[in-house]
Design brief:
Layout: E1 17-21, E2 25-26, E3 31-38, E4 48-55, E5 64-65, E6 67-69, E7 76-81, E8 84-91, E9 99-105, E10 115-124, E11 127-133, E12 138-139, H1 142-166
Parallel strand pairs: 2-12
Antiparallel strand pairs: 1-3, 3-9, 4-5, 4-8, 4-10, 6-9, 7-8, 10-11
Length: 167
């Protein structure tokens, strides 16, 4: 995810933007809102970006996972990386912006484990940052879901017993 802007190389300065998510966890098939925005009180804007989700799991680190959905094609371009539809999003034009918000859908499998979002951001032709990563999103434990279902079943059973006792 490296912009090719010869003879310039990626900036090593601290990036003037944040990459955040609507949740610190995700579950297979779940939806996350991803936000890229300039730091508060900054007058700077960016004109280009490339964004994708990646997994910390083994070789999966090399390829995007999941897909972006509900992409406004007048503002954004869906990119198919590694034969994965809508796995990456970029800008549709060089219009400057301070904030971008996108919806990402997790893969249906729990194979990928913990994930993160990675972005490249272009302020202008000479100034850009690469490999800017979000905080890690942990895969929600399926044990929690099973425990919730077990608790619900247990409550129903207890309620039925209560009804029988009161009969």
């Amino acid at each position: 995810m490296m912009p090719v802007h010869p003879p310039f190389t990626p900036s090593t300065s601290s990036p003037p933007f944040t990459l955040s998510t609507s949740s610190a966890t995700y579950r297979p098939g779940g939806v996350i809102t991803v936000t890229m925005e300039m730091v508060k009180n900054s007058s700077m804007e960016f004109q280009g970006f490339l964004l994708q989700a990646r997994s910390w799991h083994g070789q999966a680190l090399l390829w995007p996972i999941g897909k972006f959905r509900g992409i406004n094609t007048t503002l954004f371009t869906a990119v198919h990386c590694n034969n994965m539809e809508n796995s990456t999003v970029s800008q549709a034009s060089g219009v400057k912006k301070k904030k971008v918000q996108l919806t990402w859908e997790a893969p249906s499998s729990s194979y990928y484990g913990d994930i993160f979002f990675s972005a490249s951001l272009v302020q202008d032709y000479t100034t850009f940052w690469v490999q800017l990563n979000s905080s890690t999103l942990s895969l929600e434990s399926s044990g929690n879901s099973a425990a919730g279902a077990l608790s619900s079943s247990t409550l129903i059973f207890i309620s039925l017993l209560s009804l029988c006792v009161h009969c």
